[in-house]
Amino acid sequence: MGQLSRRSMLASTAAAAGGAALLSASPAAARPRSGPVAAPLGPGGHDPVTVRWLDGAAPQEVAGGTTWGVPWPRGAFSPEQGFALTTESGEAVPMQSWPIGWWPDGSVKWSAHAVSSQAPKSDSYRLAAGGETAPRSPLSVHRGRDRITVSTGVIDVEFGRAGDRVVTSIRRGRTVIAKDGRLVASRQDRPGADGAPVIKSEAFTGFVSGVTVEQDGPVRAVVKIDGKHRKGRRAWLPFVVRFYLYAGSDAIRVVHTFVFDGDEKKDFVNGLGVRFTVPLRGELHDRHIRLAGDGTGVLAEAVRGITGLRRDPGEAVRKAQYEGKKTPDTSTWDTRVTSRLQYIPAFGDYSLSQLNAHGFEINKRTGVGRSWIRVDGGRRARGLGYVGSPSGGLAFGMRNFWQLHPTELEISGAAGDEARATVWMWSPRANPMDLRFYHDGMGQDTFPEQLEGLEVTYEDYEPGFGSPYGVARTTELMFWALEATPTAERFSALAEANAAPPLLVSGPEHNHSTGVFGSWAPVDRSNPAKKELEDKLDFMHRYHLEQVDQRSWYGFWDYGDIMHSYDEDRHVWRYDVGGYAWDNSELSTDLWLWYHYLRTGDAKAFRFAEAMTRHTGEVDMYHIGKYQGLGTRHGVMHWGDSAKQVRISNAGYKRFHYFLTADERVGDLLHDLVDSDRSFLVLDPGRKVNGGNGEFDPDPKALLVGKTTDWGSLAMAWLTEWERGGKAIARTKLINGARSIAALPNGWAQGGKVTYNLADGTFTGPTEKLVSIGSLSSVFGLIEVMTELNDLIDDAEVKAQWVRFCRLYNATRDEQREASGSSWGNQNLRQAYSRATAYAAKHLGDERLAKRAWKELRTGHAGYPEDHPFTAERIEGPAVLNPVDEADLGTNASAQFGLAVMQCLALVGDEI
């Protein structure tokens, strides 16, 4: 399966680094701030662009609204350019637009656009330069001393500037639909599974420390709230929660992020949620409960049911209650029912718990201290509930509800004046989070012992490094303040919008034509050779996607990642074998998945890559603490390996999602990585392989930052910050780094002691030609970032030196000696580097190199040769626990093969 050599991987460990205090910047302003505009923009312009719904036809419901990004070619539009959106029939659509990325000349590279769920429905829209259409009732934001109020024209949402109520009220006209929105969490001091006789538990509430209005209409508003969960003197579990509201909509989208900052040996989180109080009006038989199940299923009940009784209140009464309408006046009922209403139990508490990916349970009870009654169950709930009456109520839900188990939707107190609706991102009915390291170290107390352990399990263990302190998780929630109990059909449509929020996108042809994201091109099956490769790409992507479900790679901390390597003997992925378990972005899996989406425009591909970005950007990297800004190498636990590296926290893996969706949380992550080079002041990346004695005294002017794997990851953060108009130092370090590396005698292959200056991003090294290069040098985004950088800056020396590197990696030893003074050794991953050869061929106009690139790809060194079988075999029980498809594919090889094929097709496709 194209496994990498142990030596190659060990060498890559030297790229590890530790964290420091990082940048916390506000979103980019309306025009770039880093670097001058090269020249006044010409007339520019661009033809109208078609945008369509990601999943196909226009959806029944939109989750409040939708926000998406569109790229533009260099020089097309100035930052002041307005945009107009129309339906297929020419009807104007109210829209809000703003730039989120710029070309070096100051023209718009990426624009973001937002429309409300009230926009005219159409399967596709026409986006063109022009004046925006304002909504009939523009959204407004009022900033008061103690609170901020957002009015959509349908609902008013009031946010507290301090205290424990994140949302003080949600009103629809004069009716309070919900109030006292709180963040809740709880912990226990022992895991519970170890047989502890006494377990202490305590509850915490989120307290607001800051509120920021990031956008204030006219179509879209974004309110960001920061704080921590508190009880008494303890404040922990910091959170960032964003609320999204759209003009004319009664929906609120919430993006909730929390960071674990506890002691994993003492703090076992056993509940994490968002809770609202819902005032209830009307009789108990006019209070409705709705819970979405699997497929289009809906559970429709009332707090006090009047169907199925021994005495019949009347068909009109029963029908009204079932449909969620106000029942006829009780004077019209059969008196044998109305005289005995007090004897019909009122079930005020409901729970839908999804404790695993394969089954949910619904239970209800009449109140605290009473037994729960099982209602029903199913496989995978869509994660939406409702409590209210014909005069209004709250729908509340969570995206990826079953994928991110253990989750729960809970309604309590609905038989009283006020109900509580809670979305549990971690259900209190589940076992608590147990984030402790999974083994005791097995005597690996010294570096030699740890290196021996690496030899057998591939796990880079070191005591104390497997800490979850600083990892995070982001969850998307939805709330609708409804004017009445929805019909079953509408509630099911809301559940679908909650589970898979509709998104507008521009197509592969337009995106490619703008020149964004480097070397790629839309799917091309124009001849048999290309078709064969396209079929392989499709099979490979589909196989890994389907493995997620077949292997049940779900769960709060796991969903979004996939496994690294396969165990043919057990017919399982090596989930329990050291460094072969979770992939954690190893060899740029994220890049492969995003480029696959760009080429195909496929909805499944988008959501696969999106889930990975949400995971790898939060769980696989540190957001606070000593490792801040670093990611963790692949392993049995996402944070378990001792190699903490910028190659895993790589901004290049996240920027696709940001520019395609304008997602503010991902934007935060990208900003936070700008200063991640400071992590090299904290942790010695080569502590296990350079023969050191454990002492570490770094010099900020001469840090041991790798010029390939390390610098490529840092460079992508700087490139993205420059694109977004952020800190000027990002552009400075990016260009200084590229130019100073190119000035070394052998550029990116230069050997000897090469050091990095933290202040300005420059490298210094020997003046004689020396060679030192590893096979992992360019497979963590270096090829991709240099492809983009060379198109952005006009520097002949940088480009020439990079083309030289690309030409020589897979060259003969004689060619390497002639150009660099010595052979580059027995390099691994030659198939992966076929795209480097293709890049050199393209820019040198060298047909011989182009043919060499295709030969390297087909030979398949450390990957998939031309005759590799892209087929799967079905394995049934009793050989396996569950039926699975098994193919001779490994994640690292798939990622690099995918990137190599896609870039070779884009660069030298005519020579195939």
Automatic annotation (TrEMBL):
Keyword Amino-acid biosynthesis found: no
Domain PcRGLX/YetA-like C-terminal alpha/alpha toroid: 501-911
Keywords on record: Signal
Keyword RNA-binding annotated: no
Matches recorded under InterPro entries: PcRGLX/YetA-like (IPR045793), PcRGLX/YetA_2nd (IPR048330), PcRGLX/YetA_3rd (IPR048331), PcRGLX_1st (IPR048329), TAT_signal (IPR006311)
Record domain PcRGLX/YetA-like N-terminal RIFT barrel: where: 48-129
Stretches with biased composition (Low complexity): 27-40
Region (Disordered): 27-51
Protein name listed in UniProt: Tat pathway signal sequence domain protein
Signal peptide: 1-30
